[in-house]
Every structure is written in structure tokens, then in C-alpha cells.
Amino acid sequence: MESRVVNKGQISELLDKLAKDYNLIAPIKEETMTLFRRVSGAQDVLLDYNNSDISPKGCFLPQNEKTFSYMYTGDTLEINKPVGTQKTVLFGARPCDIKAILTFDPVFDGVKFGDEYYSSKRESTVIIGLSCAKVLSTCFCYAMGGGPCDTTGSDLLLTEIGDKYYVEVITEKGQALVDAYSQIIAKQDTAQLAKDKDELAKKLSGEFVRKVDLTGVKELMDNNFELPYWAGDDQKKCIGCGTCTYVCPTCHCFDIFDYTTGDFTGDRLRCWDSCMFPEYTLEAGGHNPRPSRKERIRNRFMHKIKYHLDRYNMVGCVGCGRCVNKCPVNIDITKIINDLKEVAQNA
Amino acid sequence: MMNLAQQLREQAKKLLEEKKVDLVIGFGQGTELARNTPVFIDSPEGVSALTWGPFCANNLAKYLVDYKNDPGSTAVVVKGCDARSVNRLLDDNQILREKVVVIGLPCPGQLEWQKVSAEIKPGSTLKEVVDNGDSYTVKTDSGDYTFNKKDYLLHRCLVCENPNPVISDITIGKEIPVKNYEERFAEVQDLEKLAADEKNEYWNKQFARCLRCYACRNVCSVCTCKVCAFDQMQPMWVSKRTNLSENTAFHITRAFHVAGRCVDCGECDRVCPMDIPLRKLNVKIHKDLGELFNSPTPGTEPGLISPLGGFSPGDPEEFM
Amino acid sequence: MFKRLLEYVGFEPGRFKARWLSGSEGAKFTTTVKEMTEKIKSLGPNKKMRDDII
User: Which domain holds residue C19?
Assistant: First the structure.
């Protein structure tokens, strides 16, 4: 597919146009936080940032989603589903977060089951990715099959090079968008820019400081569910909050409940839930198959490194490093992986 | 500070060797240069994992509750603020005094690890930290970095009331004089001055960001209810929905549930992944408690009756 | 205490009031309710923590 160029000086113009024609979601700065929010124009968009504090997964799986509202009309129960999805542009997501969205596809838009709330958003959203300019000490996307300039999953990928943005068109959706804004996303000779991008990717790949080695880890977990490792320090220090799951771009667990506002009237809501909460697996009869933090910690990390691979042939972690950054007690998936590798070697 | 860490390891080793305790809960080096992680040492050889310095912001006292029913005793490493938690846990009957050994370290202030990390070359290894009084010098293999306390300490340290642990069985380190960089209630007073709709706007903005991850509640050393109101589904006081109304309900309710017992350790503020300034909420309550009941910060001494848990004839009665 | 907390997060002063009333203080009950009703009417509809705003 082709590649194009946007001059840095024109990026505001592009964003303003996109904000007018689409529901534009881009990174913004709110006090100390970097978040993905709907923006009304280029003035709100933050272009110079590392990564957002929470991932843009909310574009496809919002934290609170009304699946329908219900009303008792006297003799029938009327159900009203929300209609229509706005055409949306998700701008400025990093390659790791975009790769994470791909891990949602087999879950919510899979072979056997489809989730219309997810699919409609997925279809009507164009993803314009932004290559990383910097590698943080918490980043480790390389270990999970990704990279700071990876195009996987983007419709368009922008890379900042000098005073231009190098635009790679990856999908038909992306092509349609660049065609619609050809004035700004201009056709130009991009051979040098392509070379520059490769240089940048090489340079960034040398900047990772976290050494993560998955060798032997999956095999170890495939054969040892009752590993003594899980009874160690991690489950002792874990405080059981939902921080890691909520900031994680691949976590997608949810709870469904009805919020009644009157006589048989109310909304059915689907909201994020966390497997780290004790009540997550609490059954109606009172039994809890994951009664302590040991089982819950084991479940979380096995899901990321094994279960997602088993089910969908995709690794469940993209190496964004947010959990490492935000965990109040410094539970670190990279340390766990490296520890497990040692356990596997010593076995 | 390395010298203190060494003393700490020796004391911990002794406790474990002499079987005075079965477990030592302390600070260990984290996976980032400027972080610590809680460590649980159950053998004398394991004490080498213990560390001490200005990257030890965590409050470890609450972990004692996990070991309350174990047969043996547990030692915990505490700073000044954490020690107030120990007193409060004792008064709440969450831990038993005879099963706890408190290793207290006077604390010259804890650094905000994210701010410090941003200045240090990624991948550096920590060699030493030197306390210069008004600043810290962090020595690494990529160079020395100096951080002045006023700009890099956690805000709660700028208004610290007890740098020296208020309860301690084994104290390591010299007593540290109180040094405040700001008046304790300055932040709260600034907010109080705003008009009602300005306050509304401010707090709405903060609460709207809340993810309801409950990190603040879970890390709080006085939030020890076995079944928390916010986890109940029947009745569902709050749902999993994170709209402004429910988020506000959660924060106000929790602040009030801990009122009179909150020791102002500041952990809730530190752990929030969305940078919600929770201390501004809890410290407001501390201010009011001081004004209405003339009570000191809870946990300052063992055996203090919580102002909202006791009654004295002189209590203000604005509701009569 | 709670009143101060509510006002701190943005409820208008006077929106919340706590009053100790026993069953035999009928007159006090009446005046309290009347005062509160007047006050709330003058403040207008409450804008905080509304369920209809998602």
C-alpha cells in the first residue's frame, strides 16, 4: 500500500478537519494525566507525549456501556437499544495499544460469537497510529512481538521525522481516509522517509532496558498449574485493587447488571470488572474458586502469558508497561516472566 | 543511609535467628531504580533483600492483618507515618500487640519515584543515596543526581508531623527533627476559599477520572472491613458504573467511613492511578476534627479514642 | 463533620442539614422542615450527584 506525507505545520489543520467530520478521539493532557478523550479540535490534542495513563481500549470497550434500557409499559416490557454508531477516528494511539485492540477481535468479534456493541465501533473507527519517539524504562513491546514503529493493526501509521509526518497506509479504511484529505495528506516521494523510519525503529529497538525472555515459560505453565512460585511474594504484597486490569490495554473482563430507576424501568449496563477483585469469581452459592490472592495472581499472569495464546494464538500482553508503572506495590510482569524462566530452567 | 540499611538487616536477622518472629515485612529493591517493593522475609538468609532509603514510600503496616491469625509473631519495618497506622490497627483490634514487633526508622522524607525516574538515565543501577538535609543525592552508575526535597518529596512529606516512629520496639537511626516546607492545612484552606460552584467544578473534574479500582481503599490501613459496603451487591450501594454520581458517592462515603481513624499516611493519594488528590479530601477532615474536637492526628499515640467514636460533654452540638 | 465535607466538595451551604429531633419535639420538627423547605426552594434544584447524568 502507498505512503504519504503530512507537514508538521499542517497537522493542526488535519486534526481540525477530522474533528469536524468525525468523532475524533485523541490524547489530551488533564493536569498530570495523559488520557484519550473526544476532542473538538487540534488545540486540545497532545502530540508530544510518551504514552497515555490508561489505554485507548475505551474506544471499543467503554468502561460503562448501556446495552439497552427497559421500560414496563403496563402490559409489555419495552426494550430500547442504542442506535447507530458515530464514525470515529482514533488518533495518536501507540503501536502497542493498537496491537492490543487486535487481541479483542477474537474475543468480541469471533468465529462463534459476535458482540454488536464492539463490532459496530470497530467497523466505524479508523485507527491512526503514531510511532513512538522514545522508549521508556517500563516498555517491553519487543518481547511481545511488537515494536515502537510497528504497523500491525493501524489503518494509518504516522511517524514523526524531522518537520514531517511519514504516513503509511496499511488498510483500505486508511486509504479511504487519505484520499478524502489528499490536500493535507499529500502524495510525495517517500523513499528517504521510509529509510529514516527504519533508522528510527533500529535506534529505538536499542533503547529498551527491560530484558524479558519468554523462553520455556509457556511450556512450564502448560504442565504445572500448581507451581509453588504462585504462593510467593507477589500474592503476599498484592493489595487486590483493579489498577493493573483497568490500565491494561488487553484486559477486557466485564460485569453486566441492571440499574433500576423505577418500577421495572432501568438500564442494563456493561462495565469493566477486574479478576483481581475477590468477588469476581464469587458464585451465587457462596463458593469462590479463586478464594485467595494466590489463585487470582496466578490467573492473571497465566491469562496474559498462556491462556490467551492457547485460545486465540495471540500473546495476551503487548508490553506497554502500564501495569509495571501503576502497580502500587511494584508487582512486575517482566520480573515474573524472568523468574518463571529460571524456574523452567532449573526444573 | 546504606549504613542504616545494614543495621536493619542485622536486626532483622537477629529476630529471625532467635525465632522472636516468623516473618519480617520490609522494603526491598523494586524493579525500577527509584522504587521499592514489599518483601516478606521468613529466613535469616533472606534479610539481604531488605533495603532502606527515600524510595520506601509504601506503608507496610496493613500487611500485619494478613498474619494476625498465624501462630508466630511478625516484624514490620515502619517510618514515622506508618507507625501511626500500627497504633490505629492496634486500637481497631486488627492486630495483637504481643504478636507484632515494630522496627522503626526515622524518615527524612520519601521521594516521588516518577519525578525522580524522569531525570535519571533509564537502565541505571543504584549505588547509594546521600541525605544532604534539604536534598538527596542519588548516586548511580550513570552519574550523580541531586533532588531538592521541596520539589521532589511526596507532598505528604512536606507537611510531615512525625518523622520519628510513634511506636517502635527497635529503632534504627537517629531522631530527626520535624521540618515542614508548607503549612499543614494550606492546600485545604486554598480549596475552602473557593465558591461552592468552583469547589464543585474542581471536585467533579477529579472524581470524573476515578476508575473505581479501589486501590485507595485497599491500601488504606484503616479500611479493614471484611465485607466492604462498596463490594456489596445486595443492596448495591454503588454499582460498577463509573459515572460522576457514583464516583462522588464512593469518595465522600469512604472519606467519612475512615474519618476519625485515618492516620494521614497519604498512601491513598500515592497509589491512585489517576492522580486524584485524595489527601486534600482526608486532610480536610483532619482539619475539621482538630477544630471541632481538638483531637490530634489519629494514631499519634496508642489508645487514643477516635473523636467520632467517643463522646465527651464538651463536644460541639451544632445539630441540636 | 459530614456537612462540612459535603460543602467542601461543592454542595451549596444549606443544602444539607443535620438536626437532632426526638419524637416529642413536634413543634421543633415543624419549624425545621419549614426552614429547610424554604432554604432548598431558594437554592433551586440540586445539580450534584444526579443519576440522570451519566
Answer: 2-43
